[in-house]
């Protein structure tokens, strides 16, 4: 499939699913919170991502069943790639004490002059974030709901992604030489560290997609079996009323 054809299909899927995806109320924030309480080992968390067996059925739902095969595979890879980067930026904001961004995929490419003229540290961070290539690519490929669906998926099935960003940023801000009062130099340092973390997480996610298809089918069968069991139990509950 040519790059032009793939991008056309990708944009079509994004447009069609813009009104289909709704942020799942069952996002596993509890699993993220639980893992944040445990001792942090960077390599161990990367290993958890590497060995994650993605459920095939849920992966298909990311495209709302509008495309299949290699097109769906490439769409999901790209979506989760950008989703993990977006999680990284959101966790950086949290650790630095900045509020969440209002519209993540809004295209905005400020000039270097605007960045230098930022009146406050928070504005400087906002401009540095906006000038980052990740933000611009997100706005070209995905709507806000698609990007959110990717982050929800990672939080539910691969909570180690958010854990890595949160704990690494906390370590960076907690280092002995870190400035207590946040300034531009510290923000620049955080962005430099973000790039290093991002590359490690992205490499782990690529390996995650390389796990054999049989593994995904096994997970899918287990999920289906659990659903059938829950449905059976619910029938018994109704009959008991």
From TrEMBL:
Q: Where is the signal peptide?
A: 1-18
Per UniProt, which keywords does this protein have?
Answer: Signal
Task: List the protein's name.
Answer: SXP/RAL-2 family protein Ani s 5-like cation-binding domain-containing protein
């Amino acid at each position: 499939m040519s790059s032009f054809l793939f991008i056309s299909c990708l944009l079509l899927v994004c447009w069609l699913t813009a009104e289909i995806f709704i942020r799942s109320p069952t996002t596993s924030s509890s699993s993220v919170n639980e893992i944040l309480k445990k001792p942090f080992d960077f390599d161990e968390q990367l290993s958890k991502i590497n060995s994650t067996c993605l459920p095939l059925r849920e992966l298909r739902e990311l495209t709302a069943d509008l495309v299949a095969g290699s097109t769906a595979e490439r769409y999901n890879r790209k979506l989760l790639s950008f989703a993990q980067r977006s999680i990284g930026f959101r966790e950086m904001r949290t650790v630095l004490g900045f509020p969440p961004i209002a519209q993540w995929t809004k295209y905005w490419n400020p000039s270097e002059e605007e960045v230098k003229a930022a009146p406050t540290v928070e504005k400087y961070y906002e401009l540095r974030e906006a000038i980052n290539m990740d933000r611009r690519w997100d706005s070209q490929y995905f709507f806000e709901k698609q990007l959110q669906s990717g982050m929800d998926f990672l939080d539910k099935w691969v909570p180690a992604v958010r854990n890595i960003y949160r704990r690494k940023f906390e370590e960076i801000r907690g280092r002995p030489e870190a400035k207590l009062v946040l300034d531009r130099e510290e923000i620049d340092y955080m962005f430099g560290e973000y790039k290093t973390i991002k590359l490690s997480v992205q490499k782990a996610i690529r390996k995650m997609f390389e796990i054999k298809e049989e593994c995904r089918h096994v997970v899918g069968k287990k999920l289906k079996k659990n659903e059938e069991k829950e449905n059976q139990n619910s029938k018994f509950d109704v009959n008991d009323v």
